[in-house]
Model the fold of this input.
Amino acid sequence: MTVLCVTGTSTDVGKTVVTAAYAAVAAAAGLRVAVCKPAQTGVADDAPGDLAEITRLTGGRVHTVELARYPEPLAPDTAARRSDRPLLRLPVVVAAVRALADEYDLVLVEGAGGLLVRLGRDGFTLLDVAAAVSAPAVVVAAPALGTLNHSALTVAALKAGGVECAGVVIGAWPEQPGLAEQCNLQDLPEVTGVPLLGRIPAGSGALDAVSFAEQATRWLPADRLGMPVRT
Done:
């Protein structure tokens, strides 16, 4: 595994924290890690975005690259047009990811919103990025009612696009799960046809870097993720 795309069933399902957890686990395994965020939306130019949060949670142990930023909290292509800023282009994103893959052991590419959110010119999506660099994807899902449908649709779209789905991660597992959450935990692998790789406790993004790294290896065991240990 050199490049791994982190997508979600929708927005606000915990992609950034899951990406940080993957990065923390990989760094703990001795890998050199880079995280690419093709498009950051909803954040002012001088404000910290998702990559700043990943840097904080990993204690600065990963290299980060942001390719475009748009201030309004919209799909990147819409936000670009409204801000009169250049739209991202697929070849630019692919070239950036490949360049990182030449230098780092693991490159994590975090999408925006759900899988088919348009990132830039000609309506390309994270699915197109993953296919172009031959990378598998992890789907971050919510735990509550509706997630079975959303997760199955996302996994089906990945497979239809020729992209391997490595599995599903629950992005914010509640401290006191209800009946729907408990049933979804059991049903997700059967409904999606891919493994449940782990679950991140809700509120984990508030942890300090040391605590986050220690716990990330329990949330996402390295052997389950198929990560090699660098020697």
User: Anything to note?
Assistant: Residues 10 and 114 are 4 Å apart (CA to CA). The beta strands are 3-8, 33-41, 63-70, 106-110, 137-141, 165-173, 196-201. The longest helix spans residues 15-28.
